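Project standup — Tuesday

K.O.: blocked on the structure for the chain from last sprint. Re-posting the sequence here as requested.
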Amino acid sequence: KPKRVRNGKRVVGRLYRARIKLEGDSKVRDIPLKVADKQVAQQKLNKLIQELEHESAGLIPAKAERDAAQSPLLDLVAEYVSELTVLGRCEDHLRHVDKRLRKLVRDCKWTRLADMTPTSFQLWRKEKSGKAPKTLNEYLATLSAFWTWLRKQGRVSVNPFELVERTDARGKERVKRRALSDKESVRLLEVAGENRLAYMVPLYTGLRRTEVKTLRWSNLVLGESGGLLRIHAAVNKNRKEQTLPLHPELTKALRQHKPTDALDEDLVLEHGVPKMKTVRADLAKAGIPFLDGRGWRVDYHALRTSFITRLSKLKVHPRLAMELARHSDLRLTMKNYTDAGQLPLQEVMDSLPGLNATTDSQIASRSSV
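H.V.: unblocked you, prediction finished:
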């Protein structure tokens, strides 16, 4: 029983604790036994030593692993989502993680960690082959991230989903977005009316829908000669604090739109971002088809694609384009968010020097040889 001095008197604790140092231990383990009876405490100590020796010899898993194996699966899922909340993950991400894991638990009839096998997941994935490959890969990524968290917590020794192959999504995307040409962007802004600023912001900054919707005056520095956009790490998808320059035309439009009594915490777009129905109506007024001949669409997020594609068309260095797009991976900028259909491929081909440069003298020289 632990002893301590309190108010000058020696006080003995009511409950027993175990102090154990096995062969190979670098320090003494202090473990609460949570019982007041010495005989019961001795029995628990003997059992504890046996378990620790079996763990050390590899005969049984560690206690954290044994406890996790017996825990209800949904309790572990809830704990994982709670941990992500503490780490500051955005609400949208938390909702998707919770929804995906609970759906897998329900559809696959998993109750314990032992039920979560790669084979059972692959069978589920085969049955759900009607889902988009990208969606199936998101389920796999969520599942693997959950097991990686368990491994870091010491509750499992391996992540069995690390080696499960992703579904090939190349050419199978259900939603493909195209970029607007400069002429189409101009026409859209001309007919946008009260939605003009809501379209200008992503066309000039590449902000996502949620970022535009939650943009506040405190995020902007609007000077006469130029402006700055401050994006906080909490709302930035790449979790970086970034300050980016604003285009003069957008800076001017924002200054004109800002009310004289606007507070820093006020939203820039007080009426929010136009819904899909409104976007399609504005596209129609501008004479821009919602779907092109390839089946690629123009929605609000396509304005971000338009911004990034425009950077490539203007031959902006890829590293600069990546920073302006706020991507953590250059492949996202160059592949996913650059519409190759808008690139000046014909101009490049026309600018290539011809190869028919052999002179008559060279031909004669070769003939004589």
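K.O.: great, moving the ticket to review. The first strand starts at residue 3 and ends at 6. The chain has a mean pLDDT of 88.
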